[in-house]
Task: structure prediction
Amino acid sequence: MAGRVAFVTGASRGIGKACAVELAKAGFDVAIMARTMEEGEAREHSSTVKASDTSPLPGSLASTAALVRDVGRDALVVQGDLLDRASLGAAATKVLDAWGHVDVVVHNARYIGPGHMDRFLDTPIELLQKQIDGNVLAPLVLNKLLLPAMIDRGGGIVVNITSASGYADPTRPAGEGGWGMGYGVSKGAFQRIAGFLAIELADQGIRCFNVQPGLIATERIAQDMAKFGIENAGAPPEVVGAVVAWLCTSPDADALNGQNLEAQHFCHERGLLPGWPGPRWHDNNIRYDRSGAILEELEAGLATS
Result:
């Protein structure tokens, strides 16, 4: 039997990678799930029906596993695809067979593919369905598989990495700085899960939290999203990782069960990431680097967070 175990989805890069590493620093062995096993793998990841893009994205489970091991914790690599329920079952089974239990599940992975940056009338219904399957139903499948074992051990933690798109409208159309309806609709549904689990399972030791990252600078935004008007000028992903690690280790987190946390403000207010200057959400026409220095003024009205 391992010690404390966390299971992080979408952990090959970005926020998922940061969550895995920060949880490892907090003393967890970490099972990491994604599609990309090794650096340089090519697969379709275009966000629009108008073009194909199979260029490799930076990051892999192998690279994240190395970072987890570098801080002295064990890493278990499990390949999984949100749209392939058999792979989700296999991933959950592999972790439980290897380590006997899971104490924390971080649902960070989301649907990657066409429809994410397409307008409604340009998006086939089947692509809207894929976003709901990947962003809402896949996490519920994993919860069904992992929550019973958590309850048997006396409790556990579920963290949902959500999005402001689940409760706020874009100020511009998809492809011009906004996002597709499928993303917002699916994230809106995903947003509702934590409250239900908190009400139904609190007396069995389960805590569930929504963590809303805000704009985060990631490899995927840098490579994919700039062409759609999304600036890669957000906070570092470690901001979200630090908040997730706090939720999974602090006794004060109990009082927040079922709630939505704005990660950047939460991290800044509690000083969870030393050296980070904090969110700049109010300066919508200025772009900052990660140290807080002004890089350039942007067109008025282009929100950077």
About this structure: Confidence is low (pLDDT under 50) at residues 282-305. The chain has one domain: 5-297. The CA atoms of residues 47 and 113 lie 5 Å apart.
